[in-house]
Amino acid sequence: MLPIVPDTLGPTTDALRPTTAGTLTGSVPATNERAGLYSRYARRYARLVTMPTTAPAAHGLADVTASDSTLRRFLHGLPGVDTVGLEARAASLGTRSIKTTAKAYALDLAISMVDLTTLEGADTPGKVRALGAKAVRPDPTDRTAPATAAVCVYPDMVPAAKAAVAGSGVKVASVATAFPAGRASLAVKLADVREAVEAGADEVDMVIDRGAFLAGHYLKVYDEITAVREACGTAARLKVIFETGELSTYDNIRRASWLGMLAGADFIKTSTGKVAVNATPANTLLMLEAVRDFRAQTGVQVGVKPAGGIRTAKDAIKFLVLVNETAGEDWLDNHWFRFGASSLLNDLLMQRQKLATGRYSGPDYVTVD
Amino acid sequence: MSERLSVFKTYKLYVGGKFPRSESGRVYEVTDAKGKWLANAPLSSRKDARDAVVAARKAFGGWSGATAYNRGQILYRVAEMLEGRREQYVAEVAGAEGLSKSKAAAQVDAAIDRWVWYAGWTDKIAQVTGGGNPVAGPYFNLSSPEPTGVVAVLAPQDSSFLGLVSVVAPVIATGNTAVVVASERHPLPALSLGEVLATSDLPGGVVNILSGRTAEIAAPLAAHQDVNAIDLAGAGEELAKELETAAADNLKRVLRPQPVDGADWSATPGTERMTAFLETKTVWHPTGALGASGSSY
Amino acid sequence: MAPVFEYAPAPESRAVVDIAPSYGLFIDGEFAEAADGKVFKTVSPSTEEVLSEVAEAGEADVDRAVGAARKAFEKWSALPGAERAKYLFRIARIIQERSRELAVLETLDNGKPIRETRDADLPLVAAHFFYYAGWADKLDHAGYGANPRPLGVAGQVIPWNFPLLMLAWKIAPALATGNTVVLKPAETTPLSALFFADICRQAGLPKGVVNIVTGDGRAGAALIAHPDVNKVAFTGSTAVGKEIARTVAGTRKKLTLELGGKGANIVFDDAPIDQAVEGIVSGIFFNQGQVCCAGSRLLVQESVHDELLDSLKRRLGTLRLGDPLDKNTDIGAINSAEQLARITALADQGEAEGAERWSPACELPSSGYWFAPTLFTNVTQAHTVARDEIFGPVLSVLTFRTPDEAVAKANNTPYGLSAGIWTEKGSRILSVANKLRAGVIWSNTFNKFDPTSPFGGYKESGFGREGGRHGLEAYLDV
């Protein structure tokens, strides 16, 4: 097998990574070719963008957020999405056959990308401690199994989670902003965020106001995200959850992706896991296209987190194929791609055991929590 | 008082909505069944054929783009205009084919009715030959007939009017334009038809009528790269083979000489003379779900 | 942990297919050597390995095959439609059962990726037989009058780009309508047709109803010229199509031709760009571009040209070229040395005429017939690469400014097989589709096929339709 590598548009390895929107340095093309690429994208959007009048934003698109109408014009000027074509492409990438060494690599990568999640009314510090232990050492019988990326809990469970993963490098992510519905005042949402951050959350998973988005009040959604971004400060990375199942259309998901990125999201995330339709190959592919295009235009790299509904190792590997062939290898790292999941981890571990021993594993050989 | 001397008619070609003489300046003598001189008809040349193709091509966009309803109304108008000049055609057909007045009248009546028949087809043929195709996927898929383009029509040699109308009407009903080679021995009814077409709201160039030696005019038409199809109704076996061979150069659609029901073209035709000069265009459109809810691995 | 996500080889097993060292002609239900004992070799285009030795039919063999088909015609055409239907349903089912085997076989003999034979060719083959099986006892309702009659013996000549699928497109409607057939597969891809002969045996199809004569163009010519053939169906090049049209001129043989194309894929500035890129890739790199309806001319609106080309080039960088049996291969081998030479010559001519050539960095295997995916930019209507059918993975990129100009350029070709339209504006899809002179138009998609959907060209792309109700007409005396 001889993968074809493009001779002019190769994947970049240059660090385009800002930690927060406030510290962005703007687009610094790595090469002249890239500069050409950016300028062509810029030209496309120039129709929608007037010269900035306020303090220059890092991504160079400050003026599109100057008002509700400029923002609307920008978001509605993004290329449309053809449903059938998008889903067909996602399905086609789902037929990649990942075997042997590639599978071993993918399983470990997937494990390292899991945001091991518990978001139940019945959560207790004890439950969270067990989750943290599992995140740090997913397979107690095999020390070569990587740790997960993070544990993901409600804000009041952040202290317990911090304690459970202390010293391991596993991050603590907290949902916030009146998760999952997001139906609360901004003040309440910000208080929610501050509590999580003060308790030591490394990452905040916020939900957008889908009602405002669907009503066309894009600037309201934008302002909320920037306010949350500010509340996160430099301590926490911000994941912005769109609840794609409620946004309903792919065009909306593309618009929401750009809206979130413009507002300073470090990650864009599909779902809460609390509605009927969560992460799908197609909506994740679409968001991967969005982060790819956003970096091409602005130089700013944003992560993607599909969440909910990914339960098997086979599915997870297919998502990694989407990452690999859409956004590219720069995103094949848990700094840039995560799985929001709980049961997925055990299937990844069982597949990992199968690969190591040659025989199929069973649920009794992985820990329930 | 002496008997009034009648005014003879100068028969001309009908090309691009105008009535030119043959570019060659030549004519040939047309006689009745008993050999009596009837008139001189233009002896068309290759250049007349070429001019007719140019006119037909120019008219194709507008005619094929006209609504089917509009085409139907115009074809019906042709019938109306013919009805008003019925006696003239009865006389011409009787003279040309040596028929009794009543037999000639039957031919003319049938020809008028044939225009009416095809006038009604213009907005129905697409429903009969096209339709939706239930493909196994999230697509709306529709096939519809479209006219082939410029069609060379060799009119039947014997049936000078009913035969002529029977081959010309189906070609233009569906939106094609035609270059018609009239019956070599009996061209007068065809040349007179041009006068009716010119006053029936039919755009110039949709039908172009040439008279002369069939073989001489048909050869350049069969070989012409801008002619899309050829109806060989008026060609004998040997000529038909020659023309079909030449037509292969740009893969013209060829309608070979067909056996004629009842030999006199009086039977109600089927749709074959229309479908022979129709292309099927199939267009796929994605449908898919309304929202982004579907598809998981 | 590997630094990047390298897909390990994932080859489909060759063990599912058992290729015999030699094959005869399939005439009157039996495999037989050619009368003069001639044979030719068929090779795997990806490795040049000889797969088998196949009998080379001469005139005498073609005559025997036509005789067998003639003999079988009387009973076959008199069989109740419901019985013919059941034979075809049997064939469809056996193809489904053996689809893995046939997919591997097709990939070996043709060089196309297993992903395509598995996911496109074989499912479509089975579906085509299933579709036409259902017509066999419903012909009275097909719109061709009561009790439409078959033509007799159909002589069918098919190309190498979709060997088994083209066989299905030819044989399924012919048998459903009560004709018997003599089919000549392409010289470079005879094997799947010979396996199909075995499927006919398993299905219990009466002897002589299907006859397969392998050989080169001479066998095809003999078949088409045979005086006892009533129907000629050909899929292949326009040049050969014209030759065939001349051959049948003046006979009573019914003729349908499915020939070349130079399809325009038109991308407007309001297109769904990511899906358009996929459609462009599918349009010209599916089956290495060896597709008559390939979207080999990309017409892109000037205002999105640079952006689209950037996206397209990036996408081409992810195409995986190599072992066709590997399940992750996107681009397989060119079918033959001869075809590779033609593609190479035309691409070189494009370069010589001043078009700008681009390919992703791409290592080609050392043996077999390979051609890297190639783009030509700065192409005008006058360039050879914009006019001639290349039948390979070579895309010519042209620009336009207005919808009128797009339509004018798209139609500015002697061909008229396919076209694509990419725009989010529904009325523009419909108005442009109306004005394009092509038989198949894909809007916001490309290279989709279905047995219910008529396929065929305008102008020099041939005449007659295959697929759907329309496809019956080619095999009925109407």
UniProtKB/TrEMBL annotation, chain B:
Coiled coil: none
Keywords for the protein's UniProt record, in alphabetical order: Oxidoreductase
Transmembrane segments: none
UniProt-recorded Gene Ontology molecular function terms: oxidoreductase activity
UniProt cross-references to SUPFAM superfamilies, sorted A to Z: ALDH-like (SSF53720)
Keyword Metal-binding: no
Name of protein: Aldehyde dehydrogenase
Organism of provenance: Streptomyces parvulus
Organism lineage: Bacteria, Bacillati, Actinomycetota, Actinomycetes, Kitasatosporales
From TrEMBL, chain C:
InterPro entries the UniProt entry points to: Ald_DH/histidinol_DH, Ald_DH_C, Ald_DH_CS_CYS, Ald_DH_N, Aldehyde_DH_dom
Protein origin, superkingdom: Bacteria
GO MF terms, alphabetically ordered: oxidoreductase activity, acting on the aldehyde or oxo group of donors, NAD or NADP as acceptor
Keywords, ordered alphabetically: Oxidoreductase
Entry similarity comment: Belongs to the aldehyde dehydrogenase family.
Identification of the protein by name: Betaine-aldehyde dehydrogenase
Annotated organism of origin: Streptomyces parvulus
Taxonomic lineage from the root: Bacteria, Bacillati, Actinomycetota, Actinomycetes, Kitasatosporales
